[in-house]
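Researcher: I'd like a candidate sequence for this fold, 291 residues long. If you have to choose between options at a position, lean toward the conservative one.
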């Protein structure tokens, strides 16, 4: 049970990363390779506001998330939108360029030294008596569970029951039809990128007390989030959540019973096996096209 709780904690972070990746990809058709580094840079902004400028922690987190939203929207508007009518490979190259630019800028400003953000919440852990053993859940883990649940249900509700959510779904299904219906597709794409990058920033900030803040802090999380998205189905938002939680549990048990060094390798093996057996993922839909 303890390993299951730890797996669900890590899986919640994987799910946040996967959800952001899927929202951006499903709405705009772009796989953002700079996704993790955008979250990393926002974590550095949060750290700087907290440690250097003396902001309260919650205000520093707000500034980091706000930076992530603006970064995502500006990237879509000024770097991707002008070349949208070209090939998808052109946009992929842009995101790779963003990755290297953000990593180099972080190294230039903050150097290679690791920085630390405190837990968002501290206090006595929740201890559950299971008879022969005890289950320990820290306050930070509880916060991760609660925040993930709120964001997941809030996102599904917003996309399904609001006008903006309807515009996002319409634009993701048929861009030209959405334009004919008067939907500002450019604004929808900007919203998707801003919201998606904010999820990466939130995952980085929640993981920072454990992983520390450094230029490569989100590399593993992005790989695991991508794996979770593929596992659940890259066109399925619920699939991103299911894939993230399932991957977190699998990795935790592999690290406990086999080897901690094999946890990331397991993520890559899952991608390969799933692409061979069921490319659409657990909850994804198989695409069909006329030949």
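Model: Candidate sequence:
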């Amino acid at each position: 049970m303890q390993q299951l709780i730890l797996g669900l904690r890590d899986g919640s972070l994987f799910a946040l990363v996967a959800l952001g990746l899927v929202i951006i990809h499903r709405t705009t058709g772009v796989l953002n390779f700079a996704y993790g580094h955008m979250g990393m840079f926002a974590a550095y902004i949060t750290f700087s506001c907290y440690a250097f400028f003396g902001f309260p922690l919650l205000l520093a987190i707000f500034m980091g998330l706000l930076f992530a939203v603006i970064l995502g929207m500006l990237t879509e508007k000024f770097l991707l939108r002008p070349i949208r009518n070209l090939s998808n490979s052109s946009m992929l190259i842009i995101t790779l360029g963003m990755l290297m630019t953000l990593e180099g800028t972080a190294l230039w400003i903050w150097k290679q030294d690791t920085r630390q953000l405190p837990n968002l919440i501290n206090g006595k852990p929740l201890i559950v008596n299971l008879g022969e053993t005890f289950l320990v859940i820290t306050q930070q883990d509880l916060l991760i569970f609660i925040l993930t649940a709120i964001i997941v249900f809030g996102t599904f509700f917003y996309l399904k029951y609001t006008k903006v959510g309807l515009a996002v779904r319409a634009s993701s299904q048929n861009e030209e039809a959405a334009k004919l219906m008067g939907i500002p597709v450019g604004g929808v794409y900007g919203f998707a990128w801003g919201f998606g990058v904010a999820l990466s920033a939130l995952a980085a900030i929640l993981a920072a007390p454990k992983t520390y803040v450094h230029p490569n802090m989100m590399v593993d999380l992005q790989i695991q989030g991508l794996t979770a998205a593929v596992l659940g189905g890259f066109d399925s938002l619920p699939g991103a959540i299911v894939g993230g939680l399932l991957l977190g549990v699998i990795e935790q048990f592999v690290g406990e019973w086999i080897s901690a060094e094999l946890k990331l390798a397991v993520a890559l093996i899952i991608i390969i096996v799933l692409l061979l057996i069921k490319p659409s993922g657990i909850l994804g839909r198989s695409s069909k096209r006329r030949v």
